[in-house]
Amino acid sequence: MGKSNPPSLIKRLQLKEFTQPDIIQTKYPMFLCHGFGALGSLMKPSPLHDPAMLMREHGVIAFAPNVVPYASIETRAKNWVRLINKVCDDHGFEKVNVLAHSMGGLDMRYALTHLGITDKVASLTTLATPHRGTFLADLILKTPEIITEKLSGLVDWFGDNVYPSEKSQVLSSVEQLCRSYIQEKFNPNTPDVEGFPYFSYSAAVGKGTDFSLNPVFMFQNTQIFAKEEVNDSFVSVKSAQWGEHLGTVPLSHMHQINVQVSKEFKPIYNDFWVEVLKMLREKGF
Asked: I need a surface site. Which of 32, 65, 67, 183 has the fewest CB within 10 A?
C-alpha cells in the first residue's frame, strides 16, 4: 500500500535537518565602514551593526565600528586606518575585506591611495558610494545661508555629543560630496592603487524604477533623478559605479543599512549582504 501524502498543514511543519543559516567561509574577515551621518546610530550601536551581525550569523567574522560622523574624507580616513590596524593587531588578522557604505567608500579610497593601508586590506567593496559626487550635496548647499548655518550648528552639536572624541564639521563634509569637488579634485588626486581589487554596487528605487520609496525621500529622489537619473534617494547608479560594478540593488539608501525596512524589502536586504559574502568567497577573498 502506497504512502499517503500528509495534509498541507502538517507538511509545512515538517522539520528540516539543517535550519541554521549557511556557513560562508571567506578567506579574510569583514570590516564595515559607515557613511556620512549618525542617525542610524540612534537606533543601533553603529550604522552598519545589523549587516555585521547578519554576517556573523553566517559564520563570518565582521566588525562595524564608529568614526566621526560629520567630518572631512581625510579625517574619517585616518580614523578608519587606525581602527583597521587595531582590529588586525588585536585579533592577529593578516588582512580584512572592507565593505564601505556611501561616504565610507570615499574615505577608504583615500586611505588606500594616500595612507598606506593596502597591506592590511584585501579588497574594497562599496555600496551606493558617490564616486562622482551627488546632486543632493549641491542641493543642500543651495539652501539660504542663514538656514545652513543654523542647521550645520545643530548637526555639529549633535555629532560632537554622539562622538565626542573628534570634532564634527558637517559643512566641510557636505562640500566634499558635491559633484564638482569629487570629479575635479578628489578623483584626479586619488587614483586607484594599481592591481588592487575594487568592487561596487549601486542602488535604485523611486522615480524611474518599479520599486517604492518612503515619501519622505521622494523630493530629493526626484531632484537627483533630474540631474543624474535613477538613484537610491541619495546617490545615483552612475555615481556609485567604480572598479568592477557588480549590480544595482533595489534598496533605498536607508534600507541598505536596515533602517525602517518593511516586510517587502527585508528579504532583499538579507539576500544582498549574503550575496556580497558569497561574491568575496568566490573571488578568493
From this structure: 183
